[in-house]
Design goal:
Elements lengths: L1 H31 L7 H4 L7 E5 L1 H9 L5 E7 L2 E11 L12 E5 L14 E4 L10 H5 L1
Antiparallel strand pairs: 1-2, 2-3, 3-4, 4-5
């Protein structure tokens, strides 16, 4: 059983490396036209990011009352602070309230027109409650 788990992890790592190589070659093809694709700064950087989202008490209260409403938040990534970021809870079958394991939509230009995070207007933070392996999104994306 232990050997199978290691083999499975290695297979996934090899698959993810192949996907990364394919994406890298696709991005280099796009760059050949002298344009950079939206999100290149995020997706082509191999850095593992740790972000923090800060919500005021009033924003937390609003999300408890109306989960789909965008509320103001700050997103911190290392030294970078993005203020006026829009955040709301997301999900249908995977929806979880704030008191459990929520998924979020983070929209950078919701309250600050033109604001971007490493070239992105928005991204989703999924909770993977329907996938305890955390692999389905990697494999299907």
């Amino acid at each position: 059983m232990r050997a199978y788990a290691c083999e499975f992890q290695l297979t996934c790592v090899v698959f993810l490396l192949l996907v990364s190589v394919a994406l890298a070659s696709e991005n280099s093809t796009y760059r050949a036209g002298a344009k950079s694709a939206p999100g290149d700064e995020f997706f082509c950087d191999e850095k593992i990011r740790t972000i923090r989202i800060e919500l005021a008490e009033s924003a937390l209260g609003e999300l408890n009352r109306n989960e789909r409403a965008y509320v103001r938040a700050s997103l911190i990534d290392g030294d970078r602070v993005y203020s006026g970021v829009g955040v709301h809870l997301k999900g249908m079958g995977s929806f979880q309230p704030l008191t459990q394991k929520p998924s979020f939509t983070v929209k950078f230009d919701r309250f600050v027109p033109g604001q971007r995070y490493l070239g992105l207007k928005k991204f989703m933070l999924n909770n993977s409650v329907q996938d305890p392996t955390f692999l389905a999104e990697w494999l299907s994306s």
